[in-house]
Amino acid sequence: SQQGEEDPQALSIQEGENATMNCSYKTSINNLQWYRQNSGRGLVHLILIRSNEREKHSGRLRVTLDTSKKSSSLLITASRAADTASYFCATYHGGSQGNLIFGKGTKLSVKP
Amino acid sequence: SQTIHQWPATLVQPVGSPLSLECTVEGTSNPNLYWYRQAAGRGLQLLFYSVGIGQISSEVPQNLSASRPQDRQFILSSKKLLLSDSGFYLCAWSSGMNTEAFFGQGTRLTVV
Questions:
Q1: 20 to 30 A Cα–Cα from B40, which one of A87, B9, B12, B51?
Q2: Does residue A2 carry a pLDDT above 60?
Q3: For position B75, which CATH number holds?
Q4: Is B51's Cβ below 8 Å from some Cβ in A?
Q5: Full domain range(s) for residue B83
Q6: CATH number of A4-111
Q7: B1-43, pLDDT tens digit by residue?
C-alpha cells in the first residue's frame, strides 16, 4: 500500500532556483521523513519532522508539515547540479510496529 | 558507528533458479530490518519487515520469503525466480518505529 504520494513526479530546474516537492499521506502519523536517492544507489535520510512540528530546517532544506491537510513539502533553496536525485517522503503506517512506507518519489533534475 | 552491508551489488539469474540476498548490520542491536523492491523509475515497495529474530511480516504475497536467523542478519530468498522478480532490492534498518532508516547500497537483480 502507498502511504505517501509525492508531486510532481518530475521536476526540472536551473541551478540557483528553488525546488519544491509535495507529499500527501492518508493516515495519522507520528512523524514524516524525507529521503534522497541518487540513481542506482540506496536512500539517504534527509530530515524528520514530528507531527507536533510545523516547519523544520536543515541547511538548504526546509520541510513543512500540515497535519490537518495530511501534507508535507520539501523546499531545496539555491539548488545545485549535485541535488539531482529522486526525493521520497516516508511515514510509519499508523498502528504498526515497524511498517515504513514510502511514496513514489519526485525526480529532480537541476541543470547547470 | 553503525553500518549496513548488502550483497551482491548485481545479480543475473535464470528464470526458475533460487535466490538468496543477504543483509547484515553492524554497530547496533535489535534493529528493525526491511526489504524493499524498486522497479525502474518507481517508488519503493515494502516486501518484508522484522522487529526481532524470527519475526517476519510480509506486505506483499509473492514467491519471495525472508528470514532473520540472527539479530543483525536479514535474508531474502526465493525457491524459483520469475521474470517479474527483476528489480532493485534494498535492505534497510532502523532503531525502532518513528526513527530514521538507513539503507544498503542495493542489489540489481535481473531475471532472464
A1: B51
A2: no
A3: 2.60.40.10
A4: yes
A5: 3-111
A6: 2.60.40.10
A7: 789 999 999 999 999 999 999 999 999 999 999 999 998 877 8
